[in-house]
Amino acid sequence: MFSLLRSMWLVFLHMFHKRETYQYPEHKAPIPARWRGRIALTRDPDGGERCVGCYLCAAACPVDCISLQATEAEDGRRYPLFFRINFSRCIFCGFCEEACPTYAIQLLPDFEMAEYNRQNLVYEKEDLLINSQGKYPGYNYYRVAGMSIQGKDKGEAEHEEPPVDIKSLLP
Amino acid sequence: MSTGQYWLVIGGVLFVILNTAAGLIWLERRALALWQDRYGPNRAGPFGLFIVLADTIKLFFKEDWIPPFADKIVFVFAPAVVVASVLMSFTIIPFAPNVMVADLNIGLLFFLAMSSMGVYSIVLGGWASNNKYALLGAMRGASQMISYEVFMGLSLMGVVVLSGTFNLREIVEAQRGGWYILPQLIGFFIFLVAGIAETHRLPFDIPEAESELVAGFHSEYSGMKFGMFFIGEYMGITLISSMVVTLYFGGWLGPAFLPPVIWFVLKTFVFIMLFILLRASMPRPRYDQLMEYGWKILFPLSLLNLMVTAAIKLLL
Amino acid sequence: MATIHIDGKTYQVKEGRNLLETCLSLGLDLPYFCWHPALGSVGACRQCAVKTFRDEQDTKGRLVMSCMEPVKDQLRLSISDKEAAAFREQVIGWLMTNHPHDCAVCDEGGSCHLQDMTVMTGHSYRNYHFSKRTHKNQYLGPFLNHEMNRCIQCYRCVRFYKDFAGGKDMDVFAAHNHVYFGRHRDGILESEFSGNLAEVCPTGVFTDKTLKQHYTRKWDMTYAPSVCQGCGLGCNIIAGERYGSLRQITTRYNGAVNGYFLCDRGRYGYEFVNSSRRIKQAAVRALTGTDIGTAEVLQYVKDKLASGKVIGIGSPRASLESNFALQQLVGRPHFHLGMSDTEHDLTTLALKILRQGHVRTPSMQEAATADAVVILGEDLLNTAPMMALSVRQAVNRQPAQEAMNTTHVANWQDAAVREAMQDKHGPCFILNVQPTRLDELATVAYQTAPETIARIGFALARALGAPLAGINDLTDQEQQLVTQMAAALMNAARPLVIAGYGSACEGVLRAASNICEALHQHAKPSMLVLTTPECNSMGLEMLGGLRLDSAVDAVMNGEADTVIILENDLYRRLDKHAADNFFRRCKEVILIDHLYNATAEKATVLLPAGTFAESDGTMVNNEGRAQRFLQVYAPATTAIQESWRWLLQLGRVTNCERLRNMEFFDDVIHALTQQVRCFAGIEKLTPPADFRIAGQKIPREPHRYSGRTAMLANISVSEPKPPVDGDTPLSFTMEGYRGEPPSSVIPFFWWPGWNSVQSINKFQVEIGGSLHDGDPGKRLIEPGGNGQLTFFTDVPDHFVACAGHLQLVPLYHIYGSEELSVHTPGIAERMPAPYIMLSPEDARRYQVAEQHQLQVAVDGHPYTFMVKVNPALQRGMAGIPAGLPGTGIVNMPQMAKV
After folding, report:
1. Which of the residues A19, B122, C264, C743 has the least number of beta carbons within 10 Å of its own beta carbon?
2. Which domain CATH number covers A124?
3. What is the CATH code of the structural domain delimited by C2-95?
4. Which pLDDT tens digit goes with each residue over C205-253?
5. Domain ranges across chain B
6. Three-state SS annotation for C191-223
7. Omega before C202 within 30 of 0, i.e. cis
8. Would an 8 Å CB–CB cutoff place C126 in contact with chain A?
9. Is C842 helix (H, G, I), strand (E, B) or coil?
10. CA atoms of C293 and C282, how far apart (whole Å)
11. C2 in helix, strand or coil?
């Protein structure tokens, strides 16, 4: 009984507390740098697309709103032929970002994406690709992975020895 | 009172009550926000006051849909009952010495009768919806209201014993020597709790229980039919607050620098705010806890209160 | 039966197998790499370690490799033992020391045995801090992609490619941690079974190159159980679709038919489904340019069918249901089987032999258990490739048995058995017009004319005691061959005789039948395989109908003027000039087909048919096994529909009494089984369309299927309703029953923790056995049984070279001879250019050499080919590649004037 009265009193005292509400849109809340808002595709330090079309983001997406088609360029790099996110379905959970093995997909602190026409919420690769490395500057997937691409042959990635000569029997 | 005056009073009471109920939409949302460190509605008009208008317009223009599986006549009838029964109760409230619609000598009994009618709206609404959540809500509502009505009536008997009358005007007059809140503290408390339960407000909103039953007995209601339940609830708050003021806080009585009506309104608003504060701070008890609380604590307490009051009255 | 105790639980298991197989058969999870159910154990990867205990008191135990340990009664072992588990994790840690950091760009990812096993063992962090060894990749041709860095040295690839499939051009090179699996230098992998490496390799060293062109992860495809359309064997396949195009074919395990493998034509020949030559809209030639829909086309056809004299031409590459619907639409007296003359004769004869003879025709897996093989006039690797793989296993049977007897090892001890066998082969005799790539297995490989092969066969039957007239004109060598073959067959426990359409000679089939009947006299459980040219040749023959010739006659005589052609390119059945004449006389040619071919050029009405991937249907393979293939995906346009559905619609608009009340697939099957008694039972091949498990359909898509709400969002953000399948128990979505479906409708193999194809283990009764509720398919032909032994007595005449003329015989090519698979760019790349193959004598006589052009005349029409010289070819014969685009000559054998 006393606790009931006490909680009523405590709630009553909130009358004199400062209000937490931000008067959006006049005042905008400060958003942390790792806020999970709009999804973007970043580029690696060379300016190439980071996305290699591995489909992991699509598989991780709980609302299945990512669809893409992987393909391979002349220079051996894989990239998505198309990459589509239906933001009218996206729940901004960030699973895609966590699934991405190349740091390509990143969630930006931008959430103001309201549209009068729902069709405009379907973003293609051109809309998603940004000219930035996002939160992971300096990372280049092809420098780590064993795939050879133009300008980086076998054995030239990090922690790799030059290709072995299989004709040699030396230990 | 002349006939003209009489109609004026009726019209005035109707106008004030309905507008109060509507205004409570705004008041409750602002007050809740205040206690939750928010602003509440503040976009439409000054202090967001036009939210009332906006809400009303919205309710009127919403699709007024009757589910194909519902019992149509009862479905339409149910929300009307709640508004009608509460409005009827207001007839016996003495707002000021001469401002009351009907000066009945059984005013208190009339109030009890009318407030009991409210249960029909819930049961009929839940039944007619033909929906399991609605029916569950209605069953809960019925048992809750019938249970709490018992000692609501009993708790009032203390006041009746002290004043010796069922006429509300006379009860108020009888409090010139001292408000009944002092001798009838327990009675006041029981009546308040029972009143909250009668209006099925938080923490006793078990028939609605959004988190369990969608929206309980009015799950299937939309548009103005829902609006009737909505308004009915606010009028219920006003009614119980007015009754508390009338029975325990001396009604319109108060120092003469303000007119009696103002005193009445001020006191009533204090209790309305209390209702809202309760909503802001209380969790909802479990259904069995609610029934246990009623029958095992409040019911014996109200009987005890009546007996002690009667005994003291006899002895003095 | 033996009793063994695994982790304190007691199991009754089969004796004679190894512990790994046994544990997997019991449904337990135990990681492995080098072991493969079809390849046996070598104990190379050390991944399947378990602990065995001496007795109940033994708490220490010892680590053993479960794949190398036989089941013994009262054996106690532990899989979950801490030391064993730590050992397995350690091993995978070592295997991964050089594994590149590239799962994201690896085509195996998501169906990778290495990923599965890594997760299963719990290895998660790399403890090796030195640099990774790297390798250069090789170009291995249009079918396989090579990424050697990913290798974990399990040796499965060479064990499959060299030991199992007999490939010569792939091996393991270098030493210690430099071992390298590949060719001696870049180049196309020659084996017809190279594609299986993509499935055999537990990681991404060998991956499917055609899949890479339109790469899709395993979890993202819509699958359905299907049947290969590449030849008459009817291997079971799983076809996967994404974004409206067919992406990949993988093996659908069938313990009776193809087991774990597929040939490259079957695996890669699917691209015609995505071809730009697909017919996508119904069209009427007279109304080209006007915008007409399906309804108008049907109206047009209705008028034409009402006014014309209609005949129908079926197809051996169309399903039974489609052929049946056409037969019902035009009426039995007007239904023609769309097979060429020779094909028709051979198929008719094959069915007759199988029905009336006493010899059982084996399934492919049964054929692999034979211990002596005689192949008459078939170049198996080109006419029925997977049967060649069975023959390979069959010729190993005898030496393997000997090896097991002398060295006392179990048959799954692969390395030991092969070491003991060395190069020994069981008896195998291959008689063909030209050398085949199987000849290396043969005790004797002999090349001669088909007629002579038949005569040798007749002589062999006589030598085995058949009451036949003697054949006196055999050469000494041939006579000796007959004696040798007779002795080998008499010594064998399960002799196998193979003949078929490859020789294009009825006499060879008769001879094969005679040999088997003669063996049957000696109460030998002999087996007779007769190959058929196309995926549903046997089914079409069983359905029955008139010859294609009579269709031509009917049109020429004016008895018919309107022809409905079902999924058939008549330019592959008739000579070009005959076909041209035929179409000239036709008033209306209504073609229901999926590719725009030469016949489509002549058609007046085109109705777009679904390919096997867009249709449901039943086919009968050379064994007489009816098998069902189910629709993989709903076609992009509603205009494309199953051939039988088109025919049902034609039936509806023309008020055809025989097609009344038929709407769905099950209705057609029901009518078919009612009307044609020999197909009784095919309604039970797959469960009916209203089949539900726990009230649910079986989903075609894995539960991780992605992109549902985005894949069509570029067209409209409002998602369309998914297509509804009223014909099969499968649904087109990922919603449905998630447990194990009936074996005949398993859309894909997946099991929790087993994402790769190795999950097949979980669907089998025992490892390498049948699927849980039986292998799908139903044999419709069983041997006649009672009555007189039936011997054919009509021995074909000896082949005589004819001056100035060449006898054209068909030479088949795995890449090129089949009509549809050539639309795959990779297969087209490996297809030879049209040629004429001459014997050296003939080349001298006609003064041509290799690469020269030679003109021959068939029926007065000239054809020019590039010359190839083959010393093995009989004088007076010329080999022409059959079915190759651009060859022009269809009916073989026939005489050509030089």
Report:
1. A19
2. 3.30.70.3270
3. 3.10.20.740
4. 999 999 999 999 999 999 999 999 999 999 999 999 999 999 999 999 9
5. 66-315
6. CCCHHHHHHHCCCCCEEEHHHHHCCCCHHHCEE
7. no
8. no
9. helix
10. 7
11. strand
Number of domains composing chain A: 1
Q: Is A147 on the interface with C (CB under 8 A)?
A: yes
CATH classification of C354-532 is 3.30.2430, yes or no?
Answer: no
Q: Rounded to an integer, what is the distance from CA C594 to the centroid of its chain? A: 21
Pairwise CA distance, residues A63 & A65, whole Å: 5
How far apart are the C-alpha atoms of B65 and C398, rounded to whole Å?
82
Does residue A12 form part of some domain?
no
CA distance A26 to chain C (A): 31
CB-CB: which of A8, A10, A21 is closest to B38? A21
Assess if residue A16 is contained within a domain.
no
Q: Token pair of C892, please?
A: 């073989």
Mark yes or no for CB contact B282/A21 under 8 Å: no
Pairing of strands A66-72, C617-620: unpaired
> Is A56 in contact with C104 (Cβ distance < 8 A)?
yes
Q: Does the distance separating the beta carbons of B35 and A12 come in below 8 Å?
A: yes
Chains interfacing with B (3 or more CB pairs < 8 Å)? A
Residues in chain B: 316
* ipTM for the assembly: 0.89
Report in angstroms the alpha-carbon separations of B257 from B172, B252, B261: 19, 13, 12
Q: How far apart are the first and last CA of chain C?
A: 69
Q: In C557-715, where does DSSP find H-type helix? A: 576-585, 598-602, 643-653, 665-675
Q: Report the alpha-carbon distance of residue C709 to residue C719 in Å, rounded.
A: 7
pLDDT digits (tens, 9 = 90+) for C164-173: 999 999 999 9
pLDDT tens digits, one per residue of C608-624:
999 999 999 999 999 99
Interface contact B281-A10, CB threshold 8 A:
yes
Q: Which two tokens stand for residue B227?
A: 């609006």
Contacts of A155 (CB under 8 A, 6+ apart): A161, A162, A163, C134
CA atoms of C827 and C815, how far apart (whole Å) = 6
Nearest to C717 among A69, A119, A155 (CB): A119
Closest CA to C192 of C383, C323, C467: C383
Please indicate whether chains C and B are in contact, defined as at least 3 beta carbon pairs under 8 Å.
Answer: no
Would you say A80 and A66 are in contact if contact means Cβ atoms under 8 Å apart?
A: no
Q: Which among A39, A51, A54, A91 is the top mutation candidate for probing chain C, defined by the most C β-carbons within 10 Å of its own β-carbon?
A: A54
- Minimum-distance CB partner of C717 among A66, A118, A161: A118
Domain boundaries, chain C: 2-95, 103-271, 354-532, 805-897
Of A122, A147, A168, which has the smallest distance from its Cβ to C713's Cβ? A122
Q: Give the CATH class of C805-897.
A: mainly beta
* A147 contacts C710? CB cut-off 8 A: no
Distance CA B294, CA A109 (A): 52
Q: Which domain holds residue A117?
A: 32-137
d(CA C240, CA C237): 10
Could you give the C-alpha distances from C504 to A51, B90, C570, C715, in angstroms and in order? 55, 106, 19, 53
C-alpha B24/C-alpha B199 separation (Å) is 14
Residues 6 or more apart whose Cβ sits within 8 Å of residue C562: C304, C305, C308, C309, C310, C311, C586, C587, C588, C589, C590
Q: Do B282 and A10 touch (CB under 8 A)?
A: no
Three-state secondary structure call for residue B4: helix
Selection from B233, B210, B228, B227 nearest residue B137 by Cα: B210
Query: Is residue A9 in some structural domain?
Result: no
Best mutation target among B29, B30, B32, B34 (most A Cβ atoms within 10 Å) is: B34
Q: Does B16 touch chain A (CB under 8 A)?
A: no
Q: For residue range B95-128, what is the model confidence (pLDDT) as tens digits? A: 877 777 778 888 888 888 888 888 888 888 888 8
